[in-house]
Structure prediction request, 263 residues.
Amino acid sequence: MTATVTEAAVALTEVEKVYGAGPGRVVALAGVTTAFTRGSFTAVMGPSGSGKSTFLHCAAGLDSPTSGSVVLDGLELAGLDEDALTRLRRDRVGFVFQSMNLLPALTVEQNVALPLRLAGRRPEPAVVEEMVGRVGLANRLGHRPSELSGGQQQRVAIARALVTAPAVVFADEPTGALDTRASAEVLALLSEAARDARQSVVMVTHDPVAASYADRCYFMADGDFVGELANPTAEAVAERMTDLGAWANRAGVGNERDAGRQR
Prediction:
């Protein structure tokens, strides 16, 4: 909402995503325009069905919008073929998911090095070890995921996301399966990536405490951004979400009544 396209790690302009046609048509994104600066940590929140996941998928190049523009690290996604998109996601985008998606047969070192190998680059052991050390697992290089706690596995996933030095990291409910202590460790690492490595971190979450680690929190409803908080606190985020949920419920009742009149 504040950065220009040229200075942003990722920017969306009038992005619309529509599924289906006719009476069953669903507008998942309704003309979203926003941008995320390099070195920023942004949380995205909203009620279920507000468009958060669709927004993340379109911003990351995992899905194509019906209309509008997505510019990621200076490249307009609409102009890229599937091979170029794959390379862009592999080299310039990091992903952190709730499920971690680590390969169980690989060690910590091998999981972190995997994006480099997939890019056809020979991993430098010192680089991989430094990245694993940054997430506090230097003594676990030879361990497999089954030998780690959930929080440790998510730290491995973060190291893997950061090893290619991406322009932007997209995190989808990264603390959803973690306890309070592990969540705090993971969120501190994401905040550090934004602050120290100048990487843009965009995190979709349902947790006001997680959102409080971000520099800014954006709120979604009905497929668009409807508000934001700078330097959010968990209490302020929770209050805004309560208000947003009540507003959505009232809007839903109104829509049902309108539909009833039309019938």
User: Anything to note?
Assistant: The helical segments are 52-59, 82-92, 108-118, 125-134, 150-162, 180-197, 208-211, 234-262. The chain has eight helices and ten strands. The domain at 39-49+82-258 is CATH 3.40.50.300 (Rossmann fold). The radius of gyration is 19 Å.
